[in-house]
Amino acid sequence: MATLRVDEIHKILRERIEQYNRKVGIENIGRVVQVGDGIARIIGLGEIMSGELVEFAEGTRGIALNLESKNVGIVLMGDGLMIQEGSFVKATGRIAQIPVSEAYLG
């Protein structure tokens, strides 16, 4: 039976502590309560801003436009066929933007 010395245990613990990833973050997450006709109704996104981009669990993105006291109306930027009631939505913290340049002029 192999025995470990105190200095070996100390070295192993030190290496494990140094490798530990302490990344902690806070995300604004809600749930889909209704989806249809290009609009999703979401509960739980209390800190969302008007015009903020959101991302649904299956990858579709949307823009928060209708901020009500009990839910948020999200305009879908895609067909949203895979979005289901009860699935999660994450606020990105970014406001929708369109770059303006000579290329956009008619």
TrEMBL record:
InterPro entries: ATP_synth_asu-like_sf (IPR023366), ATP_synth_F1_asu (IPR005294), ATPase_F1/V1/A1_a/bsu_N (IPR004100), ATPase_F1/V1/A1_a/bsu_N_sf (IPR036121). The keyword Translocase applies. Keywords: ATP synthesis, ATP-binding, CF(1), Hydrogen ion transport, Ion transport, Membrane, Nucleotide-binding, Translocase, Transport. One of its GO terms (cellular component) is proton-transporting ATP synthase complex. GO terms for molecular function: ADP binding; ATP binding; proton-transporting ATP synthase activity, rotational mechanism. Residues 27-93 form the ATPase F1/V1/A1 complex alpha/beta subunit N-terminal domain. Pfam families: ATP-synt_ab_N. The keyword Phosphoprotein does not apply. Belongs to the ATPase alpha/beta chains family. This is ATPase F1/V1/A1 complex alpha/beta subunit N-terminal domain-containing protein. It comes from Aegilops tauschii subsp. strangulata. The lineage of its organism: Eukaryota, Viridiplantae, Streptophyta, Embryophyta, Tracheophyta.
